[in-house]
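Quality-control log, excerpt.
Job 1 of 2 completed; input and output follow.
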Amino acid sequence: MTMPASPTAADAANWWSTGVSRIEPDVIQYRGYPVQELIGAVSFVDTIWLLVRGDLPTPAQSALLEAALMSGADHGPQAPSIAVARMAITCGIGLNGAMASAVNTLGDVHGGAGQECLGLLHGMQRRVDAGQDRAEVADSIVAGYRERGGFVPGFGHRFHRHDPRRDPLLTLLQEAAGRGEISGDHLANITALESALARRGSKPVPMNIDGATATIYAELGFEPELARGLFVLSRSVGILAHAWEESGSRRRIKGPLPPPMTAPYTGHAERHLPGH
């Protein structure tokens, strides 16, 4: 039996090899750019694009990404992630623990619709590229979700009848498409889905922030999994702000309900052990 060779220094060095950044004594490079050249010359949004995508964005790409990230930064304490951050900070775990607790609530339901919508848009475009009619594709997608009793991701909102972030984001997309900065294909897809929902329902189900930002990410060429990561980056700003504000209240162990309110009990009626 041949024993495996002992790892070499090169094996150890290559264990975490990366094309994202070069870090050596007195050297910090992001995708090949020396950090000292980037500081003061490249924005944080451009740095996100650079590290994730590998090169610097065009001004048009940067503007759309910034709009998407800015629009999802906060949604108040009624958002579970924000509420968790505020409760966590009163438990004495510090800002980093509060932020981590909040980010961990951003799952498939709260925070995941953008990723699902982006995947839907990519799949829809493949069908359109194959020669199918866009409106018919949209109708079939909506029908499929309705038959399964599901919600079309990126549409409707539990809090807003009309999401105030929808129109300005779509306007930016329409203007970018008009200037030839984006293809406009995914913008056409999302509006076709919105029209299909309006035709099939008793009342309109307008696009929400997840649908609008997913369209931006689709037009910018991001993969679906990155939509959630970008949303986490965006919402972390609001999470930090709320956790910091709550830390100033000096309140300890702040629960989901203000005292002396308690959650209604729906279990077995009061009962006792024998002899009591």
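Job 2 of 2 completed; input and output follow.
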Amino acid sequence: MTTAPSKAGRNLPAAIAVGVALGALVIASLLLVPMVWFGIVGAAMAIATWEVSTRLRESDILVPRIPLLLGGQAIIWLGWPYGTSGVLGGFAATVLVCMVWRLLDQGLNKAPQNYLRDVSITVFVAAWVPLLASFATLMVTHDGGAKWVFVFMLGVVCSDVGGYAAGVLFGKHPMVPAISPKKSWEGLAGSLVFAIIGSLLTVTLILDANPFIGVLLGVVLVVTGTLGDLIESQVKRDLGIKDMGTKLPGHGGIMDRLDSLLPSAFVTWLVLTALL
């Protein structure tokens, strides 16, 4: 017998089980061997890129999947020895190879067919998935970087939990019904309360830093997380699909779980790098 989705549209027991399992994997890797985080992020980005590229190809948008997958790994892994310079170099090389790949794929003796559209969307995917994810791995290269990742992940979790709980219990006023009907202003308020409290505590207790940094981080995590979720919802609406994949029960695909994490990784890295 299948479990009916909750008011927020999820299979709640399955979603909780998957979330706990993923959280345990992250915690174990960061506590035992922090650099294993590169492998976890790299694997997740490969699956997410495959999901997105598959959905795009189903809509006849021919993104060059092989160089996008390999380039995504280069973007992630070059951050280990070379930091932001390695990430930027990997991204530039990926874009260049994808441009040439798509050019040769259609044949040099044929009239161009959607070349500009396909290449533009390919660059978007490379920036959206592996480039933003690389900032989650760059965090762990800092001294005490595992603590940065904990602060990042706990802040996003607090935002998600607060938004979900407030949305289910009090949600009456849709925020952007044309893009995401289940998002409400009450849910956004819940996200703000939980994320600010959670980030304030983690920044103070884990990083031993100024609590005002935690307040700032909590606010920006809610803003970027919400916008990240809306961006993926808009992409899915453009493609006429509900989920990017089906690999995570209660969540959809890997990319459906990463939509708020990807931009949040960048802003966490930015805030902590600038202020710490």
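Post-run check on job 2. The longest helix spans residues 211-239.
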